[in-house]
Write a structure and sequence with these properties.
Blueprint lengths: L1 H40 L5 H12 L8 H28 L4 H19 L1 H11 L11 H6 L4 H29 L6 H32 L3 H12 L8 H26 L5
Helix pairs in contact: 1-3, 1-10, 3-4, 3-5, 4-7, 7-8, 8-9, 8-10
Length: 271
């Protein structure tokens, strides 16, 4: 029993390392698009107007705003949710839960838990990308006073994001392998990840928009939702979704291609 527990812990640690490394690579590549997404969520500007305004006021390097907390987030939130997904899915399968519901439930649970634990880091990342610390120094007391600002929509977003991302990836990939005889490789992983990116963008956007407003403006979740609805109407909850997919699509593809290869290298098997 002790040996089995030790083996499980080792596998989880390798999964954490794999998920964190893959997410860091994807985060570094897509941070400028993430900054653009935040700009769109917090303003009424078009994509071109938002880009011109940022370049005029802050320069091209400002598109790397928030990159350090984003990488810390990748090694905490993203690594945890990706590592916890597989063992949770296995436990649910052992309990007799059907394959597809088990995959979605594992995504919901791992994403919600990871989002709650990493909320202070997400708050710092959003504020950095929104320029909050451009004219003031970061203070650790921010983590105590505002560390759990927007935690509600962030947890919901984490649950929806993970279930729709890795759950969709797992379900679609399994279906393609069974029904079409597809084999694991770059083509299957990239195409399946692209589909998962669309699903997660559409599902998680409303939570992401409210979370961004709540964290960036120090308002309550209810006030942030009212602001979005009043300013943009229902469509406002998907504001920045195009930039969101421009970031989430490549991020998802890079993450899963890197993870699949790292899993193979570390002897973990395919996702």
């Amino acid at each position: 029993m002790a040996l089995e527990a030790s083996s499980s812990s080792y596998q989880l640690a390798l999964g954490y390392l794999s998920g964190g490394a893959a997410s860091c690579a994807a985060t570094a590549a897509t941070n400028p698009i993430d900054v653009l997404k935040v700009d769109l969520q917090l303003s009424k500007r078009s994509v071109l107007a938002a880009v011109r305004e940022r370049l005029r006021r802050h320069g091209a390097l400002s598109y790397m705003d928030g990159s350090m907390p984003a990488l810390v987030r990748a090694m905490s939130y993203s690594a945890f949710r990706l590592a916890a997904y597989t063992p949770l899915k296995a436990r649910l399968a052992e309990a007799g839960v059907a394959a597809a519901p088990a995959k979605l439930a594992a995504g919901l649970a791992s994403g919600a838990t990871a989002a709650f634990l990493a909320n202070p880091i997400e708050m710092v990342k959003v504020r950095s990308q929104a320029g909050f610390y451009r004219d003031r120094a970061f203070a650790f007391r921010d983590l105590l006073t505002h560390g759990f600002a927007g935690v509600g929509p962030h947890v919901l977003r984490g649950a929806a994001h993970t279930a729709s991302q890795i759950g969709t990836y797992d379900i679609v990939k399994t279906a393609l392998k069974r029904r079409l005889g597809a084999t694991d490789g770059l083509a299957l992983h990239a195409s399946t990840a692209a589909v998962a990116g669309v699903a997660t963008t559409l599902v998680s956007s409303p939570f992401d928009v409210v979370k961004t407003h709540a964290m960036a403006t120090e308002s309550s979740v209810a006030a942030a939702a009212r602001t979005v609805l009043k300013t943009h109407g229902l469509r406002g909850f998907w504001r920045g979704a195009s930039a969101g997919y421009a970031r989430t699509g490549p991020h998802t593809v890079i993450t899963f291609i890197a993870m699949e290869n790292l899993h193979k290298l570390l002897g973990l098997g395919h996702i």
